[in-house]
Please model this.
Amino acid sequence: MISTEKKIAIHNLIEERWSPRAFENKSVGEEQLKALFEAARWAPSAMNEQPWRFIYAVKEDKENFDRLFSCLVEGNSWAENASALFISVAKKNYDYNGNPNSVALHDLGLATGNLLLQATDLGLHVHLMGGFKADKAREVLGIPEGFEPVSMGAVGYAGDPETLPENLKAREVAPRKRKPLNEIAFKGEWEQK
Ligand SMILES: Cc1cc2nc3c(=O)[nH]c(=O)nc-3n(C[C@H](O)[C@H](O)[C@H](O)COP(=O)(O)O)c2cc1C
Model:
């Protein structure tokens, strides 16, 4: 659902991105998924460390899809209708000196942002999820020490909200909201509006 509260013009890709829970029963091709991760690959990062990693599976690859799905909490069960799932992982220390990378999560977020916009450009939607079991993900996906599972994503074509249970349907069609600009961007000094 596209926000109706637009006041200042922003890029279409940003405006059109949103997070559905209902997905069409339609495959997402390997090439499309590769384009998402290629977009992530070109994000900026501190020291060009590129601390992002992704593990993904398409629905047709049932074993790997189910393994990713098993990491989600019950509240995210709607993601079983997605055409692909992925998990994003951050490398916690710099390659070049082994010191902690205090902006690894930040840079993984930048890469994921690229991925979301590329998905929008391809007519796809991605719904990110923090609701997953990190320990289980480490175990079943073989994520090594020094890497932190950060979020999961459900990828597909937005579907019909009518296919959702009532509680999810209400959230799917609710107007999207954001804090006003003057609560998040201050001119010159904290909380100067
Ligand atoms: C890091 C992160 C974690 C999220 N975790 C969940 C989640 O576990 N389950 C869920 O349904 N949505 C989750 N969301 C989606 C947000 O609720 C959604 O992005 C937010 O409400 C704004 O809606 P929009 O993406 O449609 O603009 C998550 C989003 C992000 C960025």
Notes: Residues 19 and 127 are 4 Å apart (CA to CA). Helices lie at 12-16, 30-41, 62-69, 104-121, 134-141, 166-173. The domain at 12-160 is CATH 3.40.109.10 (NADH Oxidase).
